[in-house]
Specification:
Blueprint: H1 3-28, H2 31-43, H3 50-62, H4 66-69, H5 77-88, E1 97-101, H6 107-114, E2 119-124, H7 127-134, E3 141-144, E4 159-165, H8 178-184, E5 185-196, H9 199-202, H10 210-219, E6 223-235, E7 238-247
Parallel strand pairs: 1-2, 1-4, 2-3, 4-5
Antiparallel strand pairs: 5-7, 6-7
Helix pairs in contact: 1-2, 3-7, 5-6
Bound molecules: S-adenosylmethionine (SAM).
């Protein structure tokens, strides 16, 4: 009986902490940073549904502001994901099949193309983001869909690697999508997840669930964890975390 209020108090405390952090950033940052931070915060607001997330990003893409708001001076996710894949794959990059999950306007696709990868597909549920990414001409195929527990229209063991930069968060890619990521990657292939570190605690779908599930998948022989690295200044001066797995 007494457990319920305790849990909701805990959730509330985390939400207050996130809001306080946003306020602190607003007090310290310059006006353009503040606007970009607020825009990003809107995509991650508490209780946002998956559909609302996709629509929010479409509006953001249509305003032509995403690439400036989350440009490389504020957000390092695509670069970190591309560098991680380059560390894993040094040869014959032109024939390596990669799925950029939550491909957005194509920042990661572009980073991969610039490093010699040529077989890059993108997946994103936001039509506006998909259309923006199409203009880059770096993707072989673009799939407009959610990464979730639902089976995608993608054959099992298709990709040599799958990578996510910035696709994890409130209302974004759910915990249980890990199964589907594993399914579509070839045995021996890599899965790279780059996300804001604090979401592991602040997002209720991930708190005490995402990393335990990652571990469970390791114990059950679905993948092995190659590394977990915390990096500073991932986005808006927040730490990021880079997970790298290899499918068994
Ligand atoms: C912060 S943006 C990152 C985009 C891109 N990877 C980058 O680094 O610029 C988050 C992206 O995740 C996408 N997204 C949100 N929920 C998703 C889901 N369930 N499956 C796949 N992508 C999702 C959004 O549409 C948006 O394009």
């Amino acid at each position: 009986m007494c457990k319920k209020p305790l849990i909701s108090m805990e959730i509330r405390k985390e939400q207050i902490m996130a809001a306080e952090k946003a306020k602190k950033f607003q007090q310290e940052g310059n006006q353009r940073d503040v606007a970009a931070y607020a825009q990003n915060y809107g995509a991650h607001r508490e209780g946002i549904s998956m559909k609302e997330v996709a629509d929010y990003y479409t509006e953001w893409a249509n305003s032509n502001k995403y690439d400036v708001d989350l440009g490389p001076d504020r957000y390092q996710g695509p670069k970190l994901a591309a560098e991680s894949l380059c560390d894993l794959i040094s040869e014959h990059r032109e024939s390596v099949r990669i799925l950029d999950i939550a491909s957005g306007t194509g920042f990661l696709g572009q980073e991969l193309w610039d490093r010699g990868f040529r077989l890059i597909d993108g997946l994103d549920p936001s039509e506006g983001m998909i259309e923006a990414s199409r203009k880059r001409n770096v993707y072989s195929k673009l799939i407009c869909d959610f990464m979730s527990d639902k089976m995608l229209n993608v054959q099992t063991d298709t990709y040599d690697a799958a990578a996510i930069a910035g696709g994890m968060g409130e209302g974004h890619i759910p915990c249980n999508a890990l199964y589907e990521m594993i399914r579509i990657v070839k045995p021996g292939g890599y899965i790279v997840i780059v996300m804001r570190e604090e979401y592991l605690e602040h997002v209720q779908d991930y708190k005490d669930k995402l990393e335990p599930l990652m571990k469970e998948l390791e114990i059950s022989g679905k993948w092995s964890k190659l590394s977990r690295k915390v990096v500073p200044n991932y986005s808006f001066q927040n730490n990021g975390v880079i997970f790298i797995f290899q499918k068994c």
